[in-house]
Write a structure and sequence with these properties.
Order of helices and strands: EEEEEEEEEEE
Shape: elongated
Radius of gyration: 16 Å
Structural class: mainly beta
Helix content: under 10%
Length: 127
């Protein structure tokens, strides 16, 4: 299993900045993708940004040019730098990780692919 610990949410005025962090821990073999999603009240969860181990980073059109995703590989930590925040950015932000974990069973060591989620951190932008 993988545990994702998010931090950095809070209340900020429009135009301000916040930095979210998410550290993955557990029996990790590799994490190929670390992402940030968000879910506003009454809306579906949407992808905000994704960082792949190989390949480009991806951003939703609504945050391009304002948000930056980065990753500290050895620490399995992903960051989301959010600038020029708008009230429309208000949501619960979730960290997600896609990768492979390991476990020991009666048959020996097994490798388990999966996607894991954090508990979410609230970001509120006031106008």
């Amino acid at each position: 299993q993988v545990q994702l610990a998010e931090s950095g949410g809070g209340l900020v005025q429009a135009g301000g900045s916040l930095r979210l962090s998410c550290e993955a821990s557990g029996n990790i073999i590799t994490i190929n993708v670390m992402s940030w999603y968000r879910q506003a009240s009454g809306k579906e969860r949407e992808l905000v940004a994704a960082h792949t181990r190989v390949g480009p980073t991806n951003y939703s059109d609504s945050v391009k040019g304002r948000f930056t995703i980065s990753r500290d590989g050895p620490k399995n930590t992903v960051y989301l730098e959010m600038n020029s925040l708008e009230p429309e950015d208000t949501a619960v932000y979730y960290c997600a990780a896609t990768g492979i974990t390991t476990d020991t069973t009666d048959q020996g060591q097994v490798f388990i692919p999966g996607q894991f989620w954090g508990q979410g951190t609230q970001v509120t932008v006031s106008s």
